[in-house]
Amino acid sequence: MKDTFLHQGMRKKLIETLRKKGIQNEKILAAMTELPRHFFIDTAFTKWAYTDKAFPIGNEQTISQPYTVAIQTHLLDVKPKEKVLEIGTGSGYQAGILALLGARVFTIERQEVLHLKAKKLLESLQPGNIRCYFKDGFRGLPEFAPFDKIIVTAGAEAPPEKLLQQLKINGKMVIPVGKGSQKMLVITRTSEMDFETKDYGNFKFVPFLSGVNKK
């Protein structure tokens, strides 16, 4: 894989586009400048890798639109060394961005083909501290809980209770919720029993499914 001056120039234009759309978090923009998105997309789509669009990555899954990645990452408000659980590894791009921001990332993928591909790519790129798991995202990773932050990259009909219980007190979950299109919710655990929810507008994701799909 090569990251040419052409790719770097295209990436710079994407960052300018994100700024115009209101993304102002310089740490996130720096991470997106550093991590080559075209590495995470099939070579057939390379020339479109730095447009602000989602693209298919196989198994009826997509790599999220860069704007969506930036928004979810901003809402998650990651601090260095925080434990972050990601549900839906997909291509591995979002996990890479979180790791570049200093998070200790635990990422789950239910599609074995995507899990193996993303794990291999992330191990070769080494953007930071990332552990990849082939599991059912609805169950989370109770053996490593509690987490400072949880990010879900698929549309859920409701926030899964098992994931909510894996949040630390004052921890945050960023999750798109709804059928068809989703509302981007930030759920903060304020006590053992209480959660505070804020709505950050409409987005569209692939559905959050239970179980695993072996290759």
Summarize the structure in short.
29% of the residues lie in helices and 27% in strands. β1 and β2 form a beta hairpin. It is globular, with a radius of gyration of 16 Å.
The low-confidence parts are none
Question: How many domains, in number, for the residues?
Answer: 1
The structural class is: alpha/beta
Q: What's the total number of strands? A: 9
Largest sheet at a glance? 7 strands, mixed
The sequence of SSEs as H and E is HHEEHEHEHEEHEEE
Strand content: 25-35%
CATH topology name, in short, is: Rossmann fold
- Global outline: globular
Determine Rg (CA atoms, Å): 16 Å
Instruction: Please state the average pLDDT score.
Output: 95
CATH 4th-level superfamily: Vaccinia Virus protein VP39
Overall CATH architecture: 3-Layer(aba) Sandwich
CATH class: Alpha Beta
The helix fraction, in percent, is: 25-40%
Number of helices: 6
Strand order in the largest sheet: 5-4-3-6-7-8-9
Alpha-carbon distance between the two ends: 25 Å
Map the helices and strands:
Layout: H1 5-20, H2 26-34, E1 55-58, E2 61-63, H3 66-76, E3 83-87, H4 93-100, E4 104-109, H5 112-125, E5 130-134, E6 147-152, H6 161-164, E7 167-177, E8 182-189, E9 195-203
Parallel strand pairs: 3-4, 3-6, 4-5, 6-7
Antiparallel strand pairs: 1-2, 7-8, 8-9
Report on this model:
The protein is globular, with a radius of gyration of 16 Å. With 215 residues, it is of the alpha/beta class. The chain contains six helices and nine strands, in the order ααββαβαβαββαβββ. The chain has one domain (53-203): Rossmann fold, CATH 3.40.50.150. The two termini are 25 Å apart. The strands form two sheets. The chain has a seven-stranded mixed β-sheet, with helices on one face. The model has no long low-confidence stretch (mean pLDDT 95). Strand 7 (167-177) and strand 8 form a beta hairpin.
